[in-house]
C-alpha cells in the first residue's frame, strides 16, 4: 500500500481555545478511512485544514511523501483534495452537466462556454455510474426532474469532476435514507476500486464497520488511536473515543427519583428533524439530551417551545393535552427556552438590560401599560439570582461580557417563574465561572420543583448535571441512560447509534 | 475627548445645534427671520412634517429595512377625501377625519401585509402602493383640484388658539406625548423596539412579529392621512400630488432625529427636532432664493451625509 496523505502534529488555536493540539492522520491510496470522536474532538477542524478552508498553526502535511502547504481551497483542489458537503446546493433549473461544472466551465478560445467539451466530460463521468444511476439520468436532464437518489449522484459527480485523489465525506450520509446509503456505499466502493481515497465522518457506528478499512480516533484535539477495522470491534473504538474513564468528574450523589406525577409528557412527537420522540419529565428532574451535535436535540426543544412546531404526536402538561404551535403558547403555559446562540436567538442588540429581561415577562403577563419603576426591583432580583455583574438595568446589553449576557437571558425567563425549562446548549461560549453559576442555579431550580430538559454539546456537562440522559441519533432517541449507566462510555456508544 | 465626540455625535444634540445655527443664519440673511410670529409659522410647517414623521418613525423603528414611501400618496388621498367630504362645512370635519384616516389606515395595513405575509421589501411595496394610490386619485378626481377646507379647520391650523399658538401646535405636542407613552409606557412600544432590534429573538419571546409590523404600517398610513387633513386646512384646497413633497423629508427628519434605519433605535422626540431642523433648512434655502431642484439636491445630500456620520458613529460604538 502507498501512503497517500500524512498529517502530523497538526495544531490549531482560536484565540485561547485550542481546537487541535496534536492532529494526525495517515491515509493510504484506495482506502476508506473513518475519522471518529466525540463533539469538539477536532475531527472537523482537521478535515478543514486538509481541505484548505482553515489554516493550521503548526504541523506538517505531506502527499505521497512530499511536504505540502495548503493555503486555500483552490490549492487543496489542485492537490487533488475535495470536500463533499451534504447540502451542497444544486441549481434545479440547470441541467446535470451545467450543475456539475458550475463555476468551473471550460472556455473556448473566445471565452465562451465550450458546450461540446462540457458535454463530453459529463458523459464520461456519467458512464461510470450507469449501473446505479437509473432511468432518465443524462447530461441534459434538468436537476429538477431527477429523483432524490439521482440528485445525490449529481452531488458526487460534482466532486468527482475535479478528479480528486482524496475525498472528505463529512456526515455525507446524515440526511440519507437506507436505500440512499446503500447507493452511496456502492459509489464509495467504486471509487475505492479506482484508487481514490476517502475520509469518512459519520455518526453511525454500524456504517463504520460496514464500509471502512481503517479507523482513526480523536479525543480533545488529538489523535489517540488507529485501528484496522477488520481487526477491532465497537467496544474498543468507543473506549478510545472516551479515554480514561476514571478521569471523569465526580457525579453528585444520585438523588432519589421523584415520585410526583409527570409534568411534561411527549408521546411520539415528530417533525422534519425529530422522529417519534417520547419522554416524560417530572418536577425536580433534570433530563439531558445527549449525542453528537445536530441529531435533533435542539429541534426537539424548539418544537416543544413552538418555534418549529411538531407535526405529529401529542404534548401533555400536568396530564392535560396541549397544543403548542408558537412560542407564545408555550410561554403562556410556563415553558421557558434558553438558547445557546445568544446573538441570534436572544439579544435585543442596542437595547437596555431592562428591556432584554422584560420581553418574556411581558409576553406572559400581557400588561397593557408598562411602569418601569415597579418592575425594576423584580428584574434586579431575577438578575441577582445568577450573581450577574452589570452597571444597572438601563445599561445597554452590549456592555456585558458573553457570560453575563447569557445570565441576563436566563434572568429573562426566571422572571416569568417557569415550571418547565428548555435549555438548548446554554453554556456555549461562556466562561467557566459563569458555567458554574449556571449549573448551581439549574440544580436549585430543579430542587424548587422546576422540570428541566437540558441539551449540551459537552458530554461532561450532561454527566455531571443530569438525572437521566436521552441520547439522540438521527432525530430519534437511540438510548436512555440512568443511574449506574450514566458513564461517558455509554454516552458515546449510544451517540453512535444503537448497537446492532 | 471621547466624551466630547460621543456628545457631538448624539443625534439630539446635533439636531438642536443645527436648529440654533439655522435660526442664526436665517436671522443674519434676513433680519426678522427669528421673530416670534415667524417662528410660530415655521413650527406650523414643522408640525405638518412632524405628523407624517410620527408614522415614519414607527415603521423605521420596527426594523427589517422598514420604510414607508407611500406616505406622500396617503397624504394626497387624505387631503382629497377630507376636502370632498367636508366641502367647506364645519359640521363635516369629524366625518372627514374619519374617512381620510380610515382609508389611509387601510392602505397602510395592506402595505404591512405585503411586507410581512408576502415578504415584499418595504421599499418596493410602499413605492408600488404609491403608484396605485396616485393612479386611483387621478381617475377619481380627473386631475382637477377639488374639495374645500372647512373654516374651523383652517382656523385650527393657521390662527392662534391658546397662548398665541395655533391648535395644530397643541395637537403636535399631544402627538409627541402620545408617541412617548406608546413607545415607553405600553407593552406594544417595548415590542416595537424588540422586533426592530432582533426579529428572531422577538419571536422566541412570544411576540406576534407580523401582526405588530403590519399594525405599524397601518399607523403610518393613518398618520399620513391625518396629515392630509391638516394639509388641506393649511392650504384651503387639495390636489392630487399635494403629499409628494413630504416623502423624502419625512425620512430625513427621522434620520436627523437619530432613529436608525436599521431599526430598533431612537425615539419620536428626535424626529420632532428633525422636522423642525429640516423645515428651518428649507426656509433658509428659500430665503437664499434657491429653486425647488436646489432644495431637493441639498435634502438628498443632507440625508447621505447623516447616514455616513451615524454609520461611522455606530461602528465606533460597536
Automatic annotation (TrEMBL), chain A:
The yes or no answer to whether the keyword Membrane is present is no
User: Which key words are in the record?
Assistant: ATP-binding, Nucleotide-binding, Repeat, Sugar transport, Transport
The record's annotation in Gene3D superfamilies points to:
P-loop containing nucleotide triphosphate hydrolases
What's the superkingdom here?
Answer: Bacteria
Show where the ABC transporter domain sits.
Answer: 5-245, 256-499
Please list the GO terms describing molecular function: ATP binding; ATP hydrolysis activity
Q: What protein family does this chain belong to? A: Belongs to the ABC transporter superfamily.
**What is the name of the protein in this document?**
Ribose transport system ATP-binding protein
* Native species: Devosia enhydra
Automatic annotation (TrEMBL), chain B:
The answer on whether this UniProt entry bears the keyword Transmembrane reads yes
Q: Which UniProt keywords apply?
A: Cell inner membrane, Cell membrane, Membrane, Transmembrane, Transmembrane helix, Transport
What is the protein's major site of localization?
Answer: membrane
The compartments listed are: Cell membrane
Gene Ontology MF terms: transmembrane transporter activity
Q: What's in the GO CC field?
A: plasma membrane
InterPro entries xrefs: ABC_transp_permease (IPR001851)
- Membrane topology, from the record: Multi-pass membrane protein
Ranges annotated as spanning the membrane:
38-62, 69-87, 93-113, 120-141, 161-183, 215-234, 246-263, 268-286, 292-311
Quote the function comment for this protein.
Part of the ABC transporter complex LsrABCD involved in autoinducer 2 (AI-2) import. Probably responsible for the translocation of the substrate across the membrane.
How does it associate, per the subunit comment?
The complex is composed of two ATP-binding proteins (LsrA), two transmembrane proteins (LsrC and LsrD) and a solute-binding protein (LsrB).
PANTHER family the record matches: ABC TRANSPORTER PERMEASE PROTEIN YPHD-RELATED-RELATED, AUTOINDUCER 2 IMPORT SYSTEM PERMEASE PROTEIN LSRD
Official protein name in the record: Autoinducer 2 import system permease protein LsrD
Give the organism, scientific name: Devosia enhydra
